[in-house]
Amino acid sequence: xxxxxxxxxxxxxxxxxxxVSKALNGSFxxxxxxxKKVLHAARLLNYTPNQVxxxxxxxxxxxxxxIIPTTVHHFFSKIIDGIIKRxxxxxxxxxxxxxxxxxxxxxxxxxxxxDKRVDGILISLSNKTNEFVHLNKIIKRNVPLVLFxxxxxxxxxxxxxxxxxxxxxxxxxxxxxxxYKKIAHFRGDFNPKNAVxxxxxxxxxxxxxxxxxxxxxxxxxxxxxxxxxxxASAKKMITTGIKVDAIFAITDLIAIGAIKYLREQQVxxxxxxxxxxxxxWFMSSVVTPTLSTVDQPAYKMGEMSxxxxxxxxxxxxxxNDITHKEVVLPTKLVIRNSC
Length: 339
What we know:
Blueprint: H1 6-13, H2 17-24, H3 32-44, H4 51-57, E1 63-68, H5 74-89, E2 93-98, H6 103-115, E3 120-123, H7 133-140, E4 145-148, E5 158-162, H8 164-177, E6 183-187, H9 193-208, E7 218-220, H10 227-239, E8 246-249, H11 252-264, E9 274-276, E10 293-295, H12 298-317, E11 326-329, E12 332-334
Parallel strand pairs: 1-2, 1-3, 3-4, 4-5, 5-11, 6-7, 6-8, 8-9
Antiparallel strand pairs: 10-12
Helix pairs in contact: 1-2, 1-3, 5-12, 8-9, 10-11
């Protein structure tokens, strides 16, 4: 059955489309009797407004674009949950795209979202993003942009992050206070910023506790910072004879990969080598031994990012100034059996 239009109602009642439209929108220009007649006809014909047309008249699409590096990680799945739940409260549709840590794909996805005329965009940058023309393009189009988790500080937009330096610093200080002195770091690449900040937090914790920083104890996980990276880094560390008593890993996935290899080699955890992760992925509580880690408020990060974006969209629609925010969410250490 074809969708009923304003023209169908107008023809049935012998009115103009403009009169029917104004009546349905409660305009003061239309008499109460005409409004009642139009509403009655609309109900009889099962008329529903064309939401696309309504949004176009309002110069909005009621859609938000979201680009994340991956959907398989528990951290990002919780962020998505927070984003979508908050968007639904304001009846926004979320278009979710995954860059797969691929910079070229991330750029294409930004263009796709701009072509779709989304009302705003949320992005957590890929590990390979090293130039930012595509982000500036969003801003030049006057589309609100919020970066979260993996960000670029130079971009003039709102951001929602944790203090990665402080979280890493506190993790390593905890290990030092437990008596560990030769602490390896399984780090991320030189992009994104949070990987660098976690490395700097690790390094500073050593220096502040009179432990000399040893670059041979730092292992680069420059693929996707995942399970395989942790496994390979632990294998390299053990097979080359490097002696450590603890590992601080940039993510839980890397830490769990390291645990897998160490257990295969009959290395006792934490008696021989302690392991500390980052993000409090659900697997960290079920792996053997259970993994000590940094808890990131993923759901809150998604919810807050969307809250800020919706506020900026409203301000833009009302022709108000937009003041960019940088929100730093708190973290906490979750201590389990791996140290």
